[in-house]
Amino acid sequence: MTEASDTLVEEVQARFDDLTILEYEFDNVEIELARKANALNAPLYKRRAEVIAKIPHFWALVFGRAPPEVETYIQPSDEKAFALYLDTFEVIHFEIDDPKGSPRSFSLKFGFKENEYFKDKVLEKKFWFRKTSDWEGLVSEPVKIHWKKGQDMTFGLTDAAYALAQAKKRLPPGNTDKSKERALPEYKALADKIEESEESSASFFALFGFVSSWRYVSAEESGKIRQTEAENLAKVKRGELVEEPDSDEDNENDEDDDHDYQETEVFPGGDEVAILIAEDMWPSAIKYYKRNHDDDDSDDDDMDDVSVNDRANENDDDSDEELDIRALVNKGRKEPTSNSPPMPPPARKKQRKA
Amino acid sequence: MTEASDTLVEEVQARFDDLTILEYEFDNVEIELARKANALNAPLYKRRAEVIAKIPHFWALVFGRAPPEVETYIQPSDEKAFALYLDTFEVIHFEIDDPKGSPRSFSLKFGFKENEYFKDKVLEKKFWFRKTSDWEGLVSEPVKIHWKKGQDMTFGLTDAAYALAQAKKRLPPGNTDKSKERALPEYKALADKIEESEESSASFFALFGFVSSWRYVSAEESGKIRQTEAENLAKVKRGELVEEPDSDEDNENDEDDDHDYQETEVFPGGDEVAILIAEDMWPSAIKYYKRNHDDDDSDDDDMDDVSVNDRANENDDDSDEELDIRALVNKGRKEPTSNSPPMPPPARKKQRKA
Question: Is ipTM over 0.90?
Fold first, then answer.
């Protein structure tokens, strides 16, 4: 190489370093904005929860109108469980103020009434935003669902996922030998169960068994990477060379990347589904709820002109709308119920046409 | 209906009004956050532009790594034009501080070098966020591209779209008679051209002819709706009944909703593509740019361990990487050029595995 092109390489490298520093600063702005958003929206979410508490089946109706990427995972039996027993729902950014955590971590917290499926009143699924040297994303830990006898909608998937996670925890701390994990009886049990169940459509509740779209990453591993990155960035800023960590140390967890981690994943793509719920359905829940009313009047021109406060057409409306919610709520019930409230008149907004 | 159920209806209606008020307040928080984001990111975007100005082909390389939903619209000829002539690119939220506008409106502003395709140095495509009584979304106006003779990559689509938009402007102001629009010779010319071109893949530049995924909505029409909504909201807050606007007045623009507005749309789905560019590619441009280097070393294990500041392996790297960029930059050129700079060593991050 000529001297001139050496200089050029160094110039281009300098630009590359500038971009790395900028990327880090963009990240910081994003974190600041996420905290600001959380603070500004918190009182509104609180008020929304108070209003929702007075609207029967609110969350069932929201999940009933989920975007297609989520809806495809909601089976008729899930829908029935939501309609009859889903009482509260909340998204919590539980690491928003934790300097070692990430504002991108969140949990989906479902509150259920007493029901025939499981004993749990609350099922909370946590997703941690973590990174390795060459990956970043959401990881989770299987949540134990205390299914009632013969009522497991996932046919053993969540139990098997939970059992494997517990068995892994009993391995020596810091175990990075993947073959030891694969030798666990719980590993084979889960892999077999997943293979068996591939024919049938998984219940939405299998999401509680989700681990990762790649592999589990611990808080310790992620923390080390963050620290190294911060140190390297400081060096880049000072114009110093960054020493490459010993590759054995850096890659100890990645050495058998070829392994198919998804062999024991009960809900492939669960992170994408969770993100859609947390970032779209949760903030826009009112919009999704209202769609139940908007779509009902789509083939009834008179109703397009009914104001949200116009009670004149009430008597015409609510028989139709009741049918809809009742159909949902009564799914699987033996006799009709008369406890469902009449629905409000349709909103003026129709669903976005795009 | 019984008196008891009447009361119930009123209660449910009250909850519905509460949700409407909350929706409005969520919207306000979103606007506030958009302004805050704009203010915090502006200096970073300015610095990024300064760094990018020193990196040849930066934006061509970013668009070359576009997400699939965008990439599918970038034809080889578009890629060539970007590689050789795309000089600057910017997303501008031009209504961010306009109380009558929307922070969701934005423009895509492309700066080009002197080239053989068109005379324009700047092509700016504006998207306005507007609403009607039952739709909201982005609308745009066709941008005139001054194609050089025989070089129109859209084979007349942008010209025909622009001609129709101009012809519509010559109709009496406030014309809402769709049949008059359809009787314009420019209407048939465009519809025919779109039908003709359906066999071939449209150039990305056809995006400059985009109007709407539904129909064009003027600032006046959108402004009226916003005002009515604000007034209605104020009434709802005071617990007053909202009077429904006269349906003739409300729906005058929508009376022939059955009409297929997409008959004259040169880039169906253009709003979705623009949103991806503005909300994903623009903020994450550095990430997309770096992917060019990350993917090159994906089958070279040694390179995974090269730090961004480690210049040791430089001589091994850059021949490979030069080939890549040169292939892109030289596409269609008759003789090889030696002006391309050597590329920086690969970044440590590989592409997200998910």
Answer: no
